[in-house]
Write a structure and sequence with these properties.
The complex is a heterodimer of chains A (252) and B (363). Chain A has 10 helices and 10 strands. Chain A is an alpha/beta fold. Chain A has a domain at 5-93 and 168-247: Rossmann fold (3-Layer(aba) Sandwich). In chain A, the strands form 2 sheets. Chain A has a 6-stranded mixed beta sheet, sandwiched between helices. In chain A, helix 4 crosses helix 6 (151-164). With 363 residues, chain B is mainly α. Helix content of chain B is 66%, strand content 2%. Chain B has helices spanning 30-33, 37-44, 49-80, 82-88, 91-94, 118-149, 152-164, 170-197, 213-238, 241-249, 254-283, 286-291, 309-316, 323-355; strands at 97-98, 105-106, 108-109, 114-115. In chain B, the strands form 2 sheets. Chain B has a two-stranded antiparallel ribbon. Chain B has a two-stranded antiparallel sheet with strand order 3-4. In chain B, a hairpin with a 6-residue loop joins strand 1 and strand 2. In chain B, helix 8 (170-197) packs across helix 9 and helix 9 packs across helix 11 (254-283). Chain B is flat. Classes of the chains: A alpha/beta (252), B mainly alpha (363). Chain A binds chain B through residues 51, 53, 56, 58, 80-84, 87-88, 90, 92, 94-99, 107-108, 111-112, 144-145, 147-148, 158, 161-162, 165, and chain B through 152, 240, 242-243, 245-253, 256, 260-261, 264-265, 267, 358-363.
Chain lengths: 252, 363
């Protein structure tokens, strides 16, 4: 089961560039939450703060509080522990090219020393089924490399890899922006199914996508969160003029 | 050596577009109606077809000269080694002459005309292998530190220094080895090795000089360190950042990230870098000649005197006593030439497989 995320006055910098300014947000458990906004508005930086990936860049800095469930991730835990509980799917599919499909999915568990072969087989199968890839790859799990799949399959493989460690939260940073329409709709169907079990935060450029998959949507602009509300409300009756301008295509 | 001769095709000069459009508005000023100085100058120039053709051939010649030099070296080595080849055949590389009186193998006896490449093959392989054993872990460590851990300010200077090691002439390495390394081995390292590992018979105290396979291996290790570490660094840098992030996002520590996200993806290129280092070690002459001990013998002990293919050529060529002796040295040279070219070609292909773009894919 997923857990909720509570963000209190989060600030982030790249060097001297103040990319996130005073973000307050409550992300509900077991729902999909979409973050929209023009390029460079800070939405990717925001999700990278939720699993402390932001600070892997040596010039990056973060202040504020992020609570995932009842864990204050910047105070009570090391990045390594948090990333085991918060899975992430990136914009471009990044499977491990030198590993088989099976090893790709099992990578997170093997990394942490999980070696029960039978349990591993089950987890790999379940994760691939959950990411709707099982039927396409079940015959050559250990024969084919992760890089031999198509782009859409690779992205679903990356989702399976993230699901295999059974995270409480799944962060998706524009997971479909590098994919064709058919693969995109498969990913969206997948998000729809997964959100009953996981808390999903999805960054997207595509407003229709946000409307299709998310219960709640946040609009980011210039490092600030302008509006956060039910998706339905954001797209039909936004309370902020800037949100309205953005969703009606007047800028961005 | 495969010289890559680019196929140069220079298209025939295109017909020049008409200067000044006929439909264009007529200039009001009658002076401008005349052909301007710039136009008449440009019109007076030919299409330079002959000069261009000449340039083309000159460049082709430059490219072919590389290929020509390699072929000439090979031809010369083959021709000059004919005498030894006809006398010993393949046995040159495999067999030894057994002295009927002492019943001991005689490998290299210029006085009686017995020549066998065995001790030199052995010396070259053993010293190169020892060098790899020491240099590879160190070089990979240097590369990992420089690409993944080093503070940005230190990265440039450190990388520069490592690569500067490659620029030192090998005779300087040899001198340093003779005056610093060999005494150090003789006084401190060798006695320790004999005491701790003497039972393996890989280290025994027959040779009190400090020269030998181990000294050659150590100096070779230092000499091939820069090439291996700089190429390893290059292939590690070519691993996309997204691979590192993928591993980190699964909850990996820094070491796990380097192992799974970087080294694993770069491994084919790292193998290439190691093989390139091997190529250097096989052919290295001066420093090895100064410390290997120069006796054409095969010993199990790493502390014994030996000789390598390159060192025996350097030592004996000037004073070769007979045509057969010269020819035998030439045949050694030919073998070294072929082996190093194959090893280097293989290494380059492997490095290229990783650095040309995406990490090498395994299907």
């Amino acid at each position: 089961m997923g857990v909720g995320i509570e963000v209190v006055s989060l600030n982030a910098w790249y060097g001297t560039n103040h990319t996130l300014q005073d973000i307050h947000l409550n992300i509900p458990a077991n729902h999909a939450t979409a973050l929209i906004g023009p390029s460079g508005c800070g939405k990717s930086t925001f999700v990278r703060c939720l699993n402390r990936m932001h600070e892997t860049n040596p010039i990056a800095r973060v202040t504020g509080t992020v609570r995932i469930g009842d864990l204050d991730i910047y105070k009570d835990a090391k990045p390594v522990e948090i990333r085991r509980r918060v899975g992430m799917v990136f914009q471009r599919p990044n499977p491990f090219p030198t590993m088989s499909i099976y090893d790709n999915v099992a990578a997170g568990l093997k990394l942490n020393g999980y070696s029960n072969r039978r349990a591993l087989d089950e987890i790999v199968e379940r994760s691939l089924k959950n990411s709707a890839l099982w039927d396409e790859v079940k015959d050559d799990l250990k024969k084919k490399s992760g890089a031999s799949l198509s782009g859409g399959q690779q992205q679903r493989l990356c989702i399976a890899r993230a699901l295999a460690v059974d995270p409480e939260v799944l962060l998706m940073d524009e997971p479909a922006s590098a994919l064709d329409p058919v693969s995109t709709s498969k990913i969206e169907d997948l998000i729809f199914q997964l959100k009953s079990q996981y808390t999903i935060v999805i960054v997207t450029h595509n407003m229709q996508q946000a409307a299709r998959v998310a219960e709640k949507t946040g609009f980011f602009l210039n490092g600030r969160m302008v509006e956060f509300d039910l998706t339905h409300k954001i797209f039909t009756n936004p309370s902020d003029k800037r949100t309205e301008d953005y969703i009606t295509g007047r800028f961005g | 050596m495969i010289a890559n001769v680019p196929e140069i095709r220079i298209s025939q000069a295109q017909p020049q577009p008409e200067l000044g459009s006929p439909e264009g508005p007529r200039p009001a000023d009658p002076a401008l109606a005349e052909v301007s100085a710039v136009r008449s100058f440009l019109l007076s120039r030919g299409n330079s077809a002959i000069a261009d053709r000449g340039f083309q051939w000159l460049m082709v010649l430059c490219a072919l000269s590389i290929f020509g030099i390699v072929v000439l070296i090979a031809v010369e080595l083959v021709l000059r080694s004919q005498l030894a080849w006809s006398k010993f055949g393949f046995g040159f590389f495999f067999s030894a002459f057994i002295d009927p009186a002492t019943r001991l193998p005689m490998y290299w006896d210029p006085v009686n005309g017995h020549f066998s490449a065995l001790p030199f093959l052995y010396g070259t392989l053993v010293s190169s292998f020892l060098a790899l054993l020491m240099a590879v872990p160190l070089a990979i460590g240097v590369a990992v530190f420089l690409t993944e851990m080093c503070p940005r300010v230190l990265r440039g200077p450190l990388a520069f220094l490592t690569e500067l090691l490659a620029a030192i002439p090998s005779v300087i390495y040899g001198l340093w080895a003779v005056f610093v390394l060999v005494p150090l081995l003789r006084e401190h390292v060798n006695p320790l090795l004999i005491r701790l590992l003497g039972w393996t018979s890989l280290f025994n105290d027959d040779n009190p000089t400090g020269l030998g396979f181990l000294a050659a291996g150590v100096i070779l290790a230092i000499m091939i360190l820069p090439i291996i570490s700089s190429l390893t660094r290059e292939v590690m840098t070519a691993v996309p950042h997204s691979q590192r992030e993928a591993v980190l996002a699964l909850g990996a520590t820094r070491w796990e990230m380097i192992r799974m996200g970087v080294l694993r993806n770069a491994r084919i290129g790292i193998v290439g870098a190691v093989i390139l280092g091997l190529g250097r070690a096989l052919g290295e002459t001066m420093a090895v000649t100064m410390v290997i001990g120069n006796s054409p013998e095969i010993h199990r002990s790493m502390l014994a005197n030996g000789s390598s293919m390159a060192s025996v050529i350097a030592n004996e060529f000037a004073e070769a006593s007979s045509d057969l002796h010269t020819s035998a040295l030439m045949e050694l040279g030919l073998a070294l030439f072929v082996v190093t070219i194959i090893v280097n070609a293989l290494a380059r292909v492997l490095v290229w497989a990783v650095t040309r773009g995406a990490p090498a894919q395994v299907h």
